[in-house]
Design goal:
Elements lengths: L2 H33 L9 H30 L7 H33 L3 H15 L4 H8 L3 H8 L2
Length: 157
Amino acid sequence: MGNLEIANQFRVTKTIYSSIFTGMFVFLTFVIIIIQGDKAEGGNDLDKIFTIIVPVFGLLSMFIARMIYNRMIGNYSAEADLIRKIMRYRTAKIISWALVEAACLLALIATMFTSNYLYIVVIIFLFGYYLMLKPSKESLIRDLHLSAEESDIILNN
């Protein structure tokens, strides 16, 4: 297990994180450009439905993402090698990111269908939460309760 392999594994995790965020941001920009100038219809039945579903789904996705992440991180073998631990960390992160992304996509679709900019507030809130989920060496060490030796290897890469 080389230091280069460990660095590459962590780089892949950061690349996936950045790619998901970039995709969501590009889609948000696209939706805003498309609906620019459209007027929201306050009496729209679809808008009434989305007004309840979007914030509830956003909050639920954040809580479920955190719950699944904690459960997955808690169920790993402490005896596993460092590469496997990093891969477990990445898998747990990807699942939590995907749940937040799903809530963003629902809010973006609601915005697109209703031309109601109110859902963008939910998206901004979800983006803020997503930014808090950014992978870091410190969170890897803290969340996986790595040994001092493993921590040194991670921090020195």
